[in-house]
Amino acid sequence: MFSASTLPPGPLEKVFQYIDLHQDEFVQTLKEWVAVESDSVQPVPRLRRELLRMVGLAADRLRGLGARVASVDAGFQQLSDGQTLPIPPILLAELGSDPKKPTVCFYGHLDVQPARQEDGWLTDPYTLTEVDGKLYGRGTTDNKGPVLAWINAVSAFKALDEDLPVNIKFLIEGMEESGSLALEELVRKEKSGFFSSVDCIVISDNLWISRRKPALIYGTRGNSYFTVEVKCRDQDFHSGTFGGILNEPMADLVALLGSLVDASGRILVPGIYGHVAPVTEEEKRVYEAIDLDVEEYRNSSQVKKFLFDTKEELLMHLWRYPSLSIHGIEGAFHEPGAKTVIPGRVIGKFSIRLVPHMDMSVVETQVKQHLEYIFSKRNSSNQMTVSMALGLHPWIANISDHQYLAAKRAIKTVFGTEPDMIRDGSTIPIAKILQDTTQKSVIMLPLGAVDDGEHSQNEKINRWNYIEGSKLFAAFFLEMAKLHSSW
Amino acid sequence: MFSASTLPPGPLEKVFQYIDLHQDEFVQTLKEWVAVESDSVQPVPRLRRELLRMVGLAADRLRGLGARVASVDAGFQQLSDGQTLPIPPILLAELGSDPKKPTVCFYGHLDVQPARQEDGWLTDPYTLTEVDGKLYGRGTTDNKGPVLAWINAVSAFKALDEDLPVNIKFLIEGMEESGSLALEELVRKEKSGFFSSVDCIVISDNLWISRRKPALIYGTRGNSYFTVEVKCRDQDFHSGTFGGILNEPMADLVALLGSLVDASGRILVPGIYGHVAPVTEEEKRVYEAIDLDVEEYRNSSQVKKFLFDTKEELLMHLWRYPSLSIHGIEGAFHEPGAKTVIPGRVIGKFSIRLVPHMDMSVVETQVKQHLEYIFSKRNSSNQMTVSMALGLHPWIANISDHQYLAAKRAIKTVFGTEPDMIRDGSTIPIAKILQDTTQKSVIMLPLGAVDDGEHSQNEKINRWNYIEGSKLFAAFFLEMAKLHSSW
To answer: pLDDT value at position A9?
Structure first.
């Protein structure tokens, strides 16, 4: 927390006090949002209804701030089995249109990854539970908490009847965890409409790389998600009656997946490193300046040993080199116990995190050719089908843009420190989409601590991060306004 | 059907005529038994009560034959949720104890697999329905029909007041589809009691490999079921935030599973074939004599191509060579959709079908050493644990034992043909348990045709198989008695 002596003068002081005094209300609202199982990943009608309900709740909240909210119909999602599900509407909201103020647009999402208590959650994932200042629950840090922190900041100005230093826009979607279906099309359509007056776009959908030190993010990796299906027939077999005479699809699939990456993490697809940007001297210095205690990082990650020992190697392999992960297999036996099945049709899933200047369609071709070669060598009678299910470009920003300066100053005000200048190894496609489509600058301004566990069991956001993050956004408004007056 | 000219003289002639004349009664009794939903797989009180009722019906029927029936209490089944259900009593019944006659013990079971009409049954699974000579219903072929065929054979002798050529014993259980709980313990206890006077044990719980040609079964494969766990930590990781710096458990596991079997189905665990019995010339001739249309078999299996082209190679790889199947992975992403998870802890599952004279503990050591070697070469920081979760011995009978000779002669009498001498590629632990525990010879004498669909929808037994099977058992009694007089 900041000490009284560093309190900024004027309206911000009152805003900070308001946020501190109303923090329990803010936590309560987060609890209400977490209670909605807005899982966009599992394509089932019940969850899709919950997701639509979540978008409705958020729209109501934005209207409560006085914003004009457009709930834009986003059409339908086609499932592979021929069914369709509605895509939740995308919210476009605006508050203020003073031409003398800069316009800051916040992007966030309301959908979450799947979570079930039996997967290893210590509390019900959809009941926000506070333990030692940690707010556990699915979506607390990814991304419901940060969306609400931005709303909290705005609501503090409104409640105090203070003039908002900036015009505010919101772009809120419900399909981020499923590839942001329909978003790009909308952004393209609204380039000269909703986005024309925007000065910069803020995304807060990542984490710091520390538990206490804030960070700014200037790049993210892309992702090519592949499925490789091997099919003998649609029905499964019994291993007693067919074991020994079949090209078993699982044996083929395991060989295919085993050909992708070696034990040192190096991707074995020929040519894959051909377009990776070389490391510059300046870049090396940015990595050297980052505050990371490798030993503490390793311990907090609960990992016995990483593939690399130095800070620079670790961070570069997370942020600026590609990586390949095998996620799982659909169609095989996955439950506890011992079932003697020969799966008839299995689908392996893996993805490659992409970095500048890898080209997605080149990667797609390289992967397909490689797997076809490996499969052909097996001389199997099964059918193999490789698909790139999802392709998302990497993103990199110019860190001398205004919003980076404003964010640095706001961080200094609230946290009393310089931020780590980092990238994110994950893929937040919206950054690249928004930047390319709107031609506006994008900044990633994360609130969550490194140990928040987004996408995994026991996801949480610290109460401190959530509340100080709300203040950070308020301070950011003011710094943007100050910089704007000197434009 | 047999023609009049091949009718055997004496009592058997009358028995066969009796069976033909009373076949509708026999079908009616099967209908009454099928009407009892004696499902032992779904552990719910209603079904367990039905199962107990079924055992009671069978005990009454055996008493009606004049048998002394002991209904042996088998205790309780512990369910994983802490509940208990009664295990149905095991029936030990005997009819006749003439020391001049051989004693033949029939093993059968009264429980069935689950069945619901909406799973794809064309008729109510618990209402026996005859269509074109096929008797559809759950349990018709597995195993109520064969149990009743044995009872029909005995009842024909009794009704005609003919002297039974053999002493008869029955071992009838109600938990076969759920691992034959409590059976092994009882058999062990009764080795010197109930089983001491037994000359051979008959099991009729499999199928022919043809629609019309009878078979005798002289072997079944065993099974060693393995789990191999690779663990980095209990929680999963996000591939964006950790992809590139971890020894990912899935990469390790895929490499381990990929080291087990090659594309031609050959198991790669060193030494695994060391104890597989060599193929003898006599054995080759047994395989050559088997009636199997490979093309029809392949088509009905809906498989594009098998690993082998000839009948002999196919059957040997199903019955007398080991096979390894990879069943699946627990802990990885297995659902539809695209989840970018790095599973933190994954458990691969595979099993090896064992054949004579493979030794389960040797196989366990070979598999563990192999996987430890493969894992050590990867230099991974993860933890690997290999366990043999389940081990079931293979079984093989001596086909020159009396009961095989008697069965062949009985088949010749009833069907006018030599039987296919076959094995079963699956694991039927009861044969091995009975043989090892009682030290008595076991024979598998199936009645059902290859297309009976045991365990699946629209299970049936042909009226012809049921009625001629009753005759077959009667003829078997007589052949056993004849052989006995020459012992």
So the answer is: 60
